[in-house]
Amino acid sequence: MSLEKLNSVYNAFITTFEKKGGDGPLAGLTFGVKDVIETEGIKTTAGSRILRNNVPKRDAWIVKAILSAGGTILGKTNTHEFAIGATNTSSLVGPARNPRDKERISGGSSGGSAVAVALNMVDVGVGTDTGGSIRIPASLCGVIGYKPSYGVFPTEGVIPFSWSLDTIGFLTRDLETLWMTIKGILPASKVKYFLQYVRSSPRVGLFMFDETTKDVLEKVLEFFPNSKEVNLRLMTKYGSQVRRIIAGSEGASYHTTWLKTMRDMYFPDVLKVLDSGQKTSAVDYINSLRMRKLILEEYVRTFNDFDVIISPTTKITAPKISEVLGKEAEFRDGLVSITELFNLVGAPSISVPIMEREGLPIGIMISGKPFSDGVVLGLAKHMLPN
User: What does the pLDDT look like over 256-305, one tens digit per residue?
Assistant: First the structure.
């Protein structure tokens, strides 16, 4: 089935086009770029009615890098409005639909990129991740979703949600394509982060498992029977609250003018996040930054005893769109509760598709010490079939 016909059913793209790069290491690879990433002369809507006619005058850094390396971009993928949501149901063009069941959500906010990859519409989905926006749809759509360490790939030209949390990353069907993409666009100064390798008998810490994720734990133990539980007390107790205060406050700062002049054009669940951010005091924001530092210090110390941390990506599989509409905030809280913790500490984190629950994908997440991306990707290779 053609890209256009698939898109008419699954709503993976907001805008389709073909923009070819020249010769380079990514020649022959096709990309779908999340529609919060600017493309010169081509609409960048952020899934919002506010920007429905927005045509940037520049390409984002990541777009330039893909084209310079020879990649071909086939369109702008569907996103939850302004990347502020985990369900990808609040979008200018409607929900992105799950490749396993079009009546279910894709997850978000990089849902369109995950759907496009899962359905072979493109080889690589480019996404952004502030609280799990790459790894959540990867989990729900059955693909690989990789969030690099914070700062590895420049976010210049990306419409921001939270400047201190936003990260560019990738969704693929296999690790070989992911590695090819990374190597093709990686700034030379960042190569060292990918030259660290996992030891032959990795020390694996288990995190955030409970009664609802027993099946995920059993799958992990098949690979790593000597895994031990890791105790991240501060992250567990305060991480979600701190991450949401920081993201909401920084998001509200960017949206200040539109919140005054066009607030009726936002989707209700997105407006709720931004309004909450506006109400956060400077003292609460600064205290959150202080707690973030303590959480990061605790997290880094953990790697004296462990090489990686493995957790569920999401606790649930994809719910039906009809169950989510009007309840986006409720489902967002549940979907991001694990992934967001690793944004807070700037960790490399990858969701791998190695199991299902009742016929639907659910991801297993591998996370590491900041700037140990090579270790995380190495362990993913150990878990994924060739």
Answer: 999 999 999 999 999 999 999 999 999 999 999 999 999 999 999 999 99
Judged on CB neighbours under 10 Å (0-12, 13-18, 19+), 229 is exposed
Active site residue 109: yes
Yes or no: say if 247 and 239 are a contact pair by the CB < 8 Å rule.
no
Q: Which residues contact 200 (CB under 8 A, 6 or more apart)?
A: none
> Cα(328)–Cα(111) distance, rounded to whole angstroms?
14
Q: Annotated catalytic, 381?
A: no
Q: Is the pTM of this model over 0.70?
A: yes
Q: Which residues contact 288 (CB under 8 A, 6 or more apart)?
A: 241, 242, 245, 246, 249
pLDDT tens per residue, range 213-264: 999 999 999 999 999 999 999 999 999 999 999 999 999 999 999 999 999 9
Question: Of the residues 48, 90, 106, 109, which is catalytic?
Answer: 109
Q: Indicate if 102 belongs to the active site.
A: no
> Catalytic residue among 106, 110, 133, 372, which?
133
